[in-house]
TrEMBL record:
Protein name per its UniProtKB record: Uncharacterized protein
Membrane-traversing stretches: 32-55, 62-79, 91-122
Domain of life: Bacteria
Alphabetical keyword list: Membrane, Transmembrane, Transmembrane helix
Amino acid sequence: MITITLLSVSFLLAISLKIKHYQDRHLATICWYLHLFFAVLSGICLLLFCNGYVFKGIHTDRIIYSLYAGSGMVLYALMEDKVSGRRGYLSVFFALPFILLGALILPPLRIYAVVAGIWLLVDGEFKRYPVDDHYALQTRTTAVINAQYPTYSLVQNKYWLLEKITDDVINPREAAYNVQGTRIKPDSIQLRIFTDRKEIDTTIGVQ
């Protein structure tokens, strides 16, 4: 709910500013630099994600993306009504909710809008089960996409601020209510996964 909350607040604030025709050049300048800051962070997040890394914290990356898009919405409302490249760029953020809504209305685009909306707005349910100071097992469940069986990922602490995520380290096709992990060797972890129907005992390798 973090993503949809941040974007909803930003969009409603932008709508309010547009209705009141509120414009403040100094505030717009501050928001522009904040937007650029979040744009740089979003670019770093994307590069890290392509290499299997994220910033520490379950929702840190999504919060950064949301603040990047949300600041663009608010900044669009604060800018003067003049045609410019910057205003055209910011209009994409402000128009995003209308684009999704329009796609939902059109039957040929409805399924794509639903998938895009889930991917963009739904954070999913995350649970982490620590193994030791360096590793943890994470389960992720996202509505519709994998609502029945979670994705099991291995989380490894890296370089103070980063985590390395390895998805689908196991695929028991069961929803766990508890996981116990033990580092039995430097290169292996023993996992005991407790589900409603059975107990799964397995070992995974680590680097």
